[in-house]
Amino acid sequence: MSLELGLHAAATRSTVRRLVGGSPSALFGGLVVGVILLVAVVAVFWTPYGPLTVSTGKELLPPSAAHLMGTDEYGRDVLSRLMSGTDLTLLSSLGAVLIAGLVGVPAGLLAASRRGAVGETIMRLADLVYSFPALLAAITLVAAFGASTVTATVAIGVASIPSFARVTRSAALPILASEYVQAARAYGRSPLAILRRHVLPNVAPFIIVQVSLLLSVTVLAVAALSYLGLGTPPPTATWGGMLENAQSYLYQDPLLAVWPGLAIAVSVLGFNALGDGLRDLLDPTLRGRS
Amino acid sequence: MTLLRVTGLKVETGGLPVLRGVDFEVSAGERVGLIGESGSGKTVAALAIMGLQPEGFAVQGSVEFEGGQLVGLSDREFSAIRGARMAMVFQEPMTALDPLMRVGQQIVDAVRAHRRLSRSGARRRMLELMSRVGFPSPEEQSRRFPHQLSGGQRQRVVIAIALACDPALILADEPTTALDVTVQAQVLALLQRLVAEEGSALLLISHDLAVVSSVCRRVLVMYGGTLVEAASTEEILEAPRHPYTAALLETSAGIGARSQLAAGRLPTIPGSVPSLGGFPEGCVFRGRCPREQARCQEAPPLVGDGHQFACWFPLHPGSASLGRSYIGR
Amino acid sequence: MAGSPLLPAEDAPDRRDLAFLRFLARRLVAMVLTLFGASVLVFTVLNILPGSPAQVILGTQATPASVRELTIKLGLNQPLPLQYLHWIAGLLSLHLGNSYISGQPIAPELEAALAVTGPLVALGLLFGLAIAVPTGILSALRHRRASGAWLAAATQVGIAIPNFVLGILLIIVVAVDWRLLPASGFIPWSQSVGGALRSLVLPAISLGLVEGAILSRYVRTAILGVMRADYLRTARAKGLPAGRALVRHGVRNASVPVLTVLGLELSGLIIGAVVIEAVFTLPGVGSLLLSSVANRDLITVQDIVMLVATVVVVANLVVDLLYRIVDPRLEVGG
Questions:
Q1: Which listed residue, A204, B186, C37, C301, has the most CB atoms within 10 A of its CB?
Q2: B115 with B246, same domain?
Q3: Which residues does chain C have within 8 Å of residue A290's beta carbon, measured at their own beta carbons?
Q4: Which chain C residue has its CA at the smallest distance from B46's CA?
């Protein structure tokens, strides 16, 4: 067991080095995520046009040198809106993952270290939230508090807490049962110190993987909510909202729907591939030996 | 009569040699031991003979069995031989059985793989096999799932599967290693008795010299994917010629080791078994061998008549009489 | 867990049945508790906000008197716990209550919606399985070859395409370009069964493809696991050819992990249906839910959310039971 844990620790240290040669999936995912982050940063400072700038007479233009992805039904530049939507998507997704992690990781650690009533209660609660598909929880919260970026972010975050709690707990359990933690207990090291010194470093890789995998889920959920009109309200540019608008013009301008669709799919693919690849790198036994 | 003739058997994976050309023979009804540390290639040798080498392992050379060449057979051709003429007992009874299938059914499958028996006929054969391997109430115990049996019982099931079609050769890969010490002797005795009753030949693979010497007349010693010595059990124990065999004898808890134990030292072979790609050029025992000289950079051939060994500077016959204790046991 | 290696478990059938019944009872209790917790959660979230539903229903022009009258009529002047009990008692006796907005009973409307969503989810699941099983097995069998790698990569991409994006792409190609199938809307079953099925084809494909892609990877992993299992080697040592050994031992063993995911997949399909119904403007449960949210028809929202949660929880229980039937190792305990 301790050998295995040692391997995990070593894996964390050399992850970056091995990224290049170890897993094509992680490399691909990392590249895609890198490009998305770059676009998001650029969009904060600069977009070709204002994402909300309406220009009459330039509605539904096909792609051109002036408008690389064309314009929408109000003559707004699609590329600019897509870039600005990247910011909102990432912010909302990261916010949701942050909420899920800040609650889920401590809850998982607690559930792992306190078996008995406390741990049982936590995992039952997690099961309870888990029986609620994230999107359903989000719809419920929106019904109560109205559609907004904050509601959508919080809703997705809350619904994602159990997956963090579960991953953390199942990663922490074998470490807490390991001989060196038993030894540390025997020395009289406090439970908190054990969690910090022994458990957290070994659980961290699993959490990192989970963050990446969960980001692909939250990106999708954010897009779905704004597509359903339950996320950030218009006219702010969101990928889902753009897709929803474009659906009214499928017969005139199908490309209008393709751009935001592509953006959503590529982001989900990127985070997913990164998470999968990282998991392969951290736990080579799971990898298909291909 | 030669049953199995292995010549120049080589196995490679990812460009690394696992077996470097192994030659030996097994006669009909003969019991031969194959001994070596883990990583010596003994399991791979058995799997290669059975045509069950893992994916990505390339087998070269020749394996003649009952007069036919096995290397290069298609899966279908091989399947006609496996289980029927040649069977295998595996090391891990925990995982060798399908956890979701009743053990009786798994034996029935083995019977019906080669025999055109009716459902009830196959069942009768299965019950007969189960009682032969020592299940007191086969009718009831055949309905159990593997997890409901003890390790020893599971290994008995695996042995029953191997015996299902009266094979001429049984390859047993560390059949007792995963078992409790008290059960090991029982299972070994059972295997020995059944092989004798059937008149099958046995290739017993083990790292444990005591196990092999109690069952087998002849012993093959393997190291680094090569045979380093092959002789009768008595000669191996009493007069090993290869330094590796001698070292192996030293480390086994026999009389030879006691003098060192008395001096407060646990006998070990210096160094450790290298990893797959890490064996030296020339003699594979170089670097760990106390008798190494310049000539050892060239691989020694397996020489000798009756008592074969692969060493440029063998021990003098009779210089080491370490193994007597085994015979006496 | 079950059966220590030294002390083989007794195989007495009645004891096993008893253990199974005990397990079932425990799971049923857990399920009821989960649903109870969920109902409290949903009710609290939806009713905690200040602001009277009556005000929302009547609009900003309404007089305070008429708002008060409607509040009393809807029973909204009672304390929240009482309102909760009222609602739950209604649900348990299958009285879903009346819509705040239309005043009509919710049940018939929900029933009509289920006639769309039920078949949609079932078709989606069928389509998903029809994709997942063959591709998963094939990519496992060919995992050392380029074709297997391509299949695995294709499922990876399939997972990444959200169902609503796929739905819109399908509309663009199949409905707009080829004019093969309707782009939206639903022909009721009573009018034309063929027409209803035609309007469900594209939605079911959009729904099933993604879930199928996810499932395909689990099938692949499960089959690979069986291919590398020691018992498969034992089977081949018996003389079973590789293919026959895989069929003999693979179906059961691979279905264990796949079953576990299937429970999750089902909740994915149900919630996916909500979105897909919006894409294809199908009058299903999802559309009803979304319009109720938009109208702040909270009682309808409550009912539908509980319905979906119940289906998800029950589906997971069924999967758990199946799991136990397939895997004898789980018969006692846990």
A1: C301
A2: no
A3: 143-144, 148-149
A4: C237
Based on the domain organization, do B117 and B79 belong to the same domain?
A: yes
Over residues B45-72, the mean pLDDT reads 92
Q: Partners for A (CB, 8 Å, 3+ pairs)? A: C
Contact A158, A129 (CB under 8 A): yes
Q: How far is A89 from chain C (nearest CA, A)?
A: 15
C-alpha span between A185 and A191 (Å, rounded): 8
Instruction: Mark yes or no for CB contact A288/C305 under 8 Å.
Output: no
In tens, the pLDDT along B236-288 reads: 888 888 888 888 888 765 544 444 444 555 556 777 777 777 787 888 888 78
Whether B81 and B131 map to the same domain: the answer is yes
**Residue B92: which pLDDT band, with cuts at 50, 70 and 90?**
confident
Mean pLDDT (whole number) for A4-11: 44
User: Of the ranges A68-77, A168-177, C208-217, C269-278, which one carries the lowest mean pLDDT score?
Assistant: A68-77
> What number of C-beta contacts closer than 8 Å exist between B and C?
103
- pLDDT grade, residue C1 (50/70/90)? very low
**Positive or negative torsion for Cα C109, C111, C112, C118:** positive
Reply yes or no on whether the pLDDT at C187 is more than 80: yes
Per-residue confidence (pLDDT) for residue B48, from 0 to 100: 94
Burial of residue B234 (CB within 10 Å: 0-12, 13-18, 19+) is: middle
CA nearest neighbour of B102 among B47, B157, B43: B157
Is B103 in the same domain as B133?
A: yes
Chain C positions touching B96 (Cβ under 8 A) are: 230-231, 233-234
Domains of chain C: 35-95 (no CATH), 110-330 (1.10.3720.10)
More confident residue, C75 or B159: B159
Q: What amino acid is encoded at C330 in this protein?
A: L
Q: Three-state DSSP class for C99?
A: coil
Which of C34, C168, C305 is nearest residue A128 as measured by Cβ atoms? C34
* Last residue of one domain, picked from the residues B184, B216, B248: B216
Q: Percent of chain B, pLDDT > 70?
A: 91
B136 residue type, one letter = P
CB contact under 8 A, C38 and A132: yes
pLDDT tens digits, C275-300: 999 999 999 999 999 998 888 888 88
Closest listed residue to residue B214, CA positions, set B246, B169, B250, B252: B252
Inform me whether the C-beta atom of residue B92 falls under 8 Å from chain C C-beta atoms: yes
| Listed range (B84-93, B309-318, C104-113, C288-297) with the worst mean pLDDT | B309-318
Residues B202, B256, single domain; the answer is: no
Residues B140 and B171 reside in one and the same domain: yes
* Count of the separate structural domains present in chain B: 2
B207 plus B256 within the same structural domain: no
Could you tell me the CATH number of the domain that includes residue B200?
A: 3.40.50.300
What is the token pair recorded at A92?
């909302």
> Are C168 and A216 inside 8 Å of each other by CB?
no
Confidence label for A282 from pLDDT (cuts 50, 70 and 90)? confident
Structural domain range at position B248? 237-327
Residue B232 within any structural domain of the chain? no
Residue B228 forms part of a structural domain:
no
Q: Is residue A277 within 8 Å of residue A270, measured between CB atoms?
A: no
Beta strand ranges found along A167-266 (DSSP E): none
Query: Which of C143, C226, C234 has the highest number of chain B CBs within 10 A, making it the mutation to test binding with B?
Result: C234
B211 and B279 belong to one structural domain: no
Within 8 A of C237 by CB-CB distance, chain B residues are: 50, 52, 82-83, 87-88, 90, 161-162
Contact C157 A264 (CB under 8 A): no
Is residue B60 domain-resident? yes
A252 at the C interface (CB within 8 A)? no
What is the token pair recorded at C62? 């309404």
Is B165 part of a structural domain of the chain?
Answer: yes
Q: SS3 of A63, please? A: coil
- Sole residue written with tokens 């370490």: B322
Q: How far does the CA of residue B27 sit from the closest CA of chain C (Å)? A: 21
C229:B114 CB<8 A = no
